[in-house]
Amino acid sequence: MSDTPKSKVNLFTDGACSGNPGPGGWAYLLVHPRTGKSREMSGGELDTTNNRMELQAVIEGLGDLQSPSVVELYSDSQYVLKGLETWLDGWKKRGWKTAAKKPVKNVDLWQQLDELRKIHQISFHWVRGHDGHPENERVDVLAVQAREAIARR
């Protein structure tokens, strides 16, 4: 970690895709628990996958932080959370190969996340999707809206 994190934030993320691949959207919500201030953002891609959108949401959210932070990451994506918590270091040691010696999918995004996790102190929290969690529901709505907007282009 480059600097000692100064602020704590909650980061809620989600991705959505229509077809796999197909048009997709990502969204994040940053909440500063001390001040109550929040910021949300979303975007999309025309030809992508759900996993890529889940990863992009985390990349965008972490990238939006202005300084090293203590980040509580909330996601309904086991792929993202297990990747960051469990698989990433092994992939790197094996030259970005899985345990089965196959190339890691979405390696470009995983490499971006690897760089971002060097800056921030991240804790991981799984949230059941579509289960009434207010912040998860919000980022789901934003990701779906972004997916629909990109699909209409």
Structure description:
This protein is α/β, with parallel strands linked by helices and 153 residues long. Helices cover 41% and strands 29% of the residues. It has a five-stranded mixed beta sheet. Helix 1 (50-63) runs parallel beside helix 3. The longest helix is centred in the last third of the chain and has 19 residues, at 134-152. The chain is globular. The relative contact order is 0.25.
Short description:
The protein is of the alpha/beta class and 153 residues long. It has helices at residues 50-63, 78-93, 107-119, 134-152; strands at residues 7-17, 22-31, 38-48, 69-75, 121-126. The longest helix has 19 residues, at 134-152.
State the main characteristics.
5 strands; alpha/beta; five-stranded mixed beta sheet; globular
Number of helices: 4
Helix-strand sequence: EEEHEHHEH
Number of strands: 5
Q: Poorly predicted ranges (pLDDT <50, ≥5 residues)?
A: none
Tell me the β content.
25-35%
For the biggest sheet, the summary is:
5 strands, mixed
CA radius of gyration is 15 Å
* Morphology call: globular
**Level of helix content?**
40-55%
The secondary structure category is alpha/beta
- Residue-averaged pLDDT, rounded? 93
Task: Break the fold down into its secondary structure elements and pairings.
Blueprint (H helix, E strand, L loop, with lengths): L6 E11 L4 E10 L6 E11 L1 H14 L5 E7 L2 H16 L13 H13 L1 E6 L7 H19 L1
Parallel strand pairs: 1-4, 4-5
Antiparallel strand pairs: 1-2, 2-3
Helix pairs in contact: 1-3
